[in-house]
Design brief:
Strand order of the largest sheet of chain A: 6-7-8-3-9-10
Distance between the termini of chain B: 27 Å
Helix content of chain A: 25-40%
CATH superfamily of the largest domain in chain A: P-loop containing nucleotide triphosphate hydrolases
Number of helices of chain A: 10
CATH superfamily of chain B: ABC transporter involved in vitamin B12 uptake, BtuC
CATH architecture of chain B: Orthogonal Bundle
Largest sheet of chain A: 6 strands, mixed
Strand content of chain B: under 5%
Structural class of chain A: alpha/beta
Chains: A alpha/beta (252), B mainly alpha (318), C mainly alpha (317)
CATH class of chain B: Mainly Alpha
Order of helices and strands of chain A: EEEHEEHEHHHHEHEHEEHHEE
Number of domains of chain B: 1
Number of helices of chain B: 13
Strand content of chain A: 25-35%
Number of strands of chain B: 0
Radius of gyration of chain A: 18 Å
Order of helices and strands of chain B: HHHHHHHHHHHHH
Radius of gyration of chain B: 19 Å
Oligomer: heterotrimer
Number of strands of chain A: 12
Bound molecules: adenosine-5'-triphosphate, magnesium ion
Structural class of chain B: mainly alpha
CATH class of the largest domain in chain A: Alpha Beta
Helix content of chain B: over 70%
Shape of chain A: globular
Largest sheet of chain B: none
CATH architecture of the largest domain in chain A: 3-Layer(aba) Sandwich
Shape of chain B: globular
């Protein structure tokens, strides 16, 4: 479980997060939703210790994020930030291989190579693996970054808008793979999504944020309702059902 | 020009006059007055010429480049001059070229330099409009390239002569070539007059390319003409004292600050006056009071460099 | 790895050529019968050749590191104030403790180089983000400002001629046995970087990825800073700064091989050695029997390569 208690965060004098307490359940797929600027990325970055903690406490699978050595945390959770551009000129396979670094610290073992090969396969990158990052499309690069986080092979996987740049088929494949991680391997996943129907279709748990506060949390059926969503996005939104899951429609 | 600007120019002119008097007559002993006075007058004339050249060149260049952190020498103008001079010696042969007296030789130098600079920097500015930092970096590195080639040619021409290298690497306000002074003075005066005549058009140019073109300015011709003036002025200052990278930056910054409005009719004289005040005052301070004539140029570069970093950190690059 | 053999043979060929070129004629075939030739070889030619190769290799590796540290391709140890820092340190020791032994000078130069490089890192952290080209500009200006401080002190204390040998285009003509061994320290420091190659590569991926992978960025930064400073200080002390090597070699290698430093650092080092050896040879042959400093040649070649790198394609990264 990821436990967040009384989390506050300020950037340059403005309060970005207001006293947030919540949790990401273990063994579930948790989706963070909310309008632009709600504080989703900030929350995820704080959990992933990409940002120093100012106020409050976070534990990931029992590890206090503020106190656990960063190298140890890297074997417990993998995080993919919203901005993935890198200036280095790396081949896709080299980038994915760095996902294993927390486990071998520069001396890759056979199992590390296997994991890398699996991740490359899983995201359909085999044909591209010898290309440089600046020689592939935005979506392909994004898949390489996700594959790197996958290769890290941690109990927790945190992804900030992983669907960015992905076409419908690859987006669906990613969600299916995440489901598989959760259902078959007992991993836990937290991700930020803007396309709510992905949350509706695949998530076990939804946290809705707005203006640095949590507006609602619970199962998709509880959170993805007309009342909550219209309030969350300040726009009339209707919710139907499809295959026994909520289907969110914005056609007025 | 409004009253405030006129007043400001008058104050600056008075200040310069006062400093010049101080320079001429301070600590004048009893003996050999005539000689000392003529020595001091020559130096004063040189300092003022160089100062005006650098100050006005920088203001003009900043207007053309539409950028307040640039100076011609940051962009490699003076290095181009040094290179061109070295090339002239190589190509025309020491004998024939050196046979010319200082005046005509300098005239040829300036002519070639002006042509080269217009072509090179005209292209660079036109291409770089979209990515200013890249353009600046290009200019800086071009400067390094020009300097390196000059040093190399200097070495090849005369393997034992290290002075060439020294001379193009450091500026010195003490090493003024008196023989060049008359030509240099005339050239500077002509360039400054031309600039002042152009100033209404420069005001429009300062609005940026788009506005200037839509206001019916002959944009390209004006840019080229202004660059030619800059090249002339830089040739003068480089020939007299060597490369001075950041001095103009301080001067242009102060001139814009003092005049508040960006009218070139006021800006150009203000830049000339402020530059002259700084150089004459600085040289007086360092030579007569501190007794360290050699260090003024270093101090100026130091202060100018810090000022440049300050502008960068303030995000004023655009 | 077909590049390594090619580079190695180029290196060997250039080193052999470097051994034979010089004012005194030395025929490599009869050094064993000719005592004088042997002496020239051991006392002058060999040290010089080794010094050139070590300098090129170490500076290139230092360039890779500083580029990873600031995540910008357009910087090198000679354009961010490191060299000027080393000169400041040397000046300081020379003035304050004129009789101090070599190792004290060496440490002072390294420490001062570290301080000025750290200053540069502080400056660029405050620059507006996303302006890729501002970083090299800030570095060049900072080194200009520091250079004017060095010049000022040099003038005040009549040490200008030393300052000249440290900061004006470095050359190898003064290298003889016993006067270049510090460069082994530089090469050692650069070699150290190879063991942390992965860490530097990860650092180059950005703060976010580095933290995500559990890398302690601060300690990698410190290591990089130390290596860059020590390499630069040793080079400045022994032969004077060689411009652009640390800037262009990493760029050229990265274009071909990418930035997987574990694989590319050896190639970078070899290429740097080859480049500087070639420039030194050219410098010795152009106006034979006189010499043009290798640094001067690199000033031209390096600046031209830099301009090419700068404009080869539209802004990227
Ligand atoms: N570096 C910064 N300086 C100032 N404000 C910032 C900074 N980074 C984020 N913010 C502000 O913090 C708030 C939360 O930002 P955050 O990136 O967490 O939003 P988000 O929910 O991820 O939005 P999006 O859906 O657009 O990614 C926003 O209002 C944003 O303007
Ligand atoms: Mg976000």
């Amino acid at each position: 479980m990821i436990q967040i208690s009384n989390l506050g965060h300020k950037i340059g004098g403005t309060q970005i997060l207001h006293d947030i307490s919540t949790s990401f359940p273990k063994g579930k797929l948790t989706a963070l939703i909310g309008p632009n600027g709600a504080g989703k990325s900030t929350l995820l970055r704080l959990v992933g210790r990409l940002e120093p903690l100012q106020q409050g406490a976070i534990t990931v699978a029992g590890h206090d994020v503020a106190r656990t050595p960063t190298a140890d945390l890297a074997r417990v959770m993998a995080i993919l930030g919203q901005q993935t551009a890198v200036a280095s000129r790396l081949r896709l396979c080299e980038l994915v291989a760095f996902g294993r670094w927390p486990h071998h610290q520069g001396r890759p073992r056979p199992e590390d190579r296997t994991k890398v090969a699996q991740a490359i396969d899983a995201f359909a990158l085999s044909k591209l693996k010898n290309r440089f990052l600046d020689e592939v499309s935005g979506g392909q690069a994004q898949r390489a970054h996700i594959a790197m986080a996958f290769a890290q092979d941690t109990e927790w996987l945190l992804l900030d808008e992983p669907l960015n740049n992905l076409d419908m088929a690859h987006a669906r494949a990613l969600m299916a793979r995440l489901r598989d991680l959760v259902d078959r391997q007992g991993r836990s996943v937290g991700l930020v999504v803007h396309e709510i129907n992905y949350a509706a279709a695949w998530a076990d748990h939804v946290i809705a944020m707005k203006d640095g506060r949590i507006m609602a949390e619970g199962t998709p059926d509880d959170v993805l309702t007309e009342a909550v969503l219209s309030d969350l996005y300040d726009a009339p939104i209707s919710v139907g059902r499809h295959k026994d899951r909520p289907l969110v429609l914005h056609h007025a | 020009m409004d009253r405030r600007a006129t007043l400001m120019l008058a104050v600056l002119a008075l200040l310069l006059a006062g400093l010049s008097a101080l320079w001429m007559f301070q600590g004048l002993g009893a003996g050999n007055r005539g000689f000392i006075l003529s020595l001091r007058a020559t130096k004063l004339a040189a300092l003022v010429t160089v100062a005006v050249a650098i100050g006005v060149a920088t203001v003009l260049f900043q207007t053309v480049a539409a950028n307040r952190v640039l100076t011609p020498s940051i962009m490699g103008f003076d290095a181009l001059y040094v290179l061109m001079q070295t090339l002239m010696i190589v190509l025309l042969g020491n004998a024939g070229f050196a046979g010319l007296s200082a005046g005509p030789k300098f005239g040829i130098d300036v002519g070639v330099m002006t042509a080269l600079a217009v072509v090179l920097f005209g292209t660079l500015l036109a291409k770089g409009a979209r990515d200013i930092p890249r353009m600046i970096l290009t200019g800086v590195i071009l400067g390094v390239l020009f300097r390196s080639v000059s040093q190399f040619l200097g070495r090849v021409l005369d393997p034992n002569e290290f002075a060439v290298v020294q001379a193009v690497s450091f500026a010195s306000f003490n090493r003024v070539d008196a023989a060049l002074l008359p030509v240099a003075g005339v050239l500077t005066a002509v360039a400054v007059m031309a600039a002042i005549r152009l100033s209404p058009q420069l005001d429009v140019l300062a609005l940026g390319r788009e506005s200037a073109v839509s206001l019916g300015l002959r944009y390209r011709a004006l840019v080229m003409g202004t660059l030619a003036l800059v090249a002339m002025l830089v040739s003068v200052s480089t020939a007299l004292v060597g490369p001075v990278a950041f001095f103009g930056l301080i001067v242009a910054g102060l001139a814009h600050g003092a005049m508040q409005n960006a009218r070139h009719a006021g800006l150009i004289p203000a830049a000339g006056l402020i530059a002259a005040i700084l150089l004459v005052g600085g040289q007086w301070l360092f030579e007569r009071i501190l007794g360290q004539a050699a260090t003024l140029s270093v101090v100026v570069e130091f202060a100018g460099g810090l000022f440049f970093l300050y502008l960068l950190l303030k995000g004023r690059i655009r | 790895m077909r590049r390594m053999p090619a580079l190695l043979s180029a290196l060997i060929a250039l080193m052999l050529a470097s051994l034979t070129v010089g004012a005194a004629h030395v025929d490599l075939r009869d050094i064993f019968s000719d005592d004088r030739a042997m002496l020239v070889l051991l006392e002058s030619r060999l040290p010089r050749t080794v010094a050139v190769a070590l300098t090129g290799a170490a500076l290139s590796v230092a360039g890779v590191l500083i580029q990873a540290l600031v995540r910008n391709r357009f910087v090198g140890p000679d354009t961010v104030g490191t060299a000027e820092g080393a000169a400041l340190g040397l000046l300081g020791v020379t003035i304050l403790f004129p009789a101090s032994p070599l190792w004290v000078r060496m440490i002072a130069a390294s420490l001062a180089a570290m301080v000025t490089t750290w200053l540069f890192l502080g400056v660029i952290r405050r620059l507006p983000a996303r302006e890729v080209m501002l970083i090299p500009i800030a570095g060049l200006v900072l080194s200009g400002v520091l250079g004017s401080v060095v010049t000022f002190i040099g003038w005040q204390t009549d040490l200008m001629q030393y300052v000249g040998t440290w900061l004006l285009s470095g050359e190898f003509s003064g290298v003889i046995a016993g006067r270049y061994e510090l460069l082994w320290v530089a090469a050692g420091a650069a070699g150290l970087a190879w063991f942390a190659a992965d860490r530097f590569a990860i650092l180059g991926l950005g703060e976010q990825v580095a933290t995500g992978l559990g890398l302690s960025t601060a300690s990698v930064m410190r290591l990089g800073l130390a290596v860059v400073s020590v390499v630069t200080a040793m080079v400045v002390t022994t032969v004077g700064m060689i411009p652009f090597v640390g800037l262009v070699v990493p760029n050229l290698v990265s274009r071909v091989m990418g930035d997987n430093l574990r694989a590319s650092l050896p190639v970078v080092a070899l290429s740097g050695a080859v480049l500087v050896l070639a420039c030194d040879l050219v410098g010795r042959l152009v106006i034979y029997p006189y010499e043009v400093p290798a640094g001067m040649i690199l000033g031209i070649l390096g600046a031209a390569l830099f301009l090419w790198l700068l404009h080869r394609r539209p802004a990227h990264g």
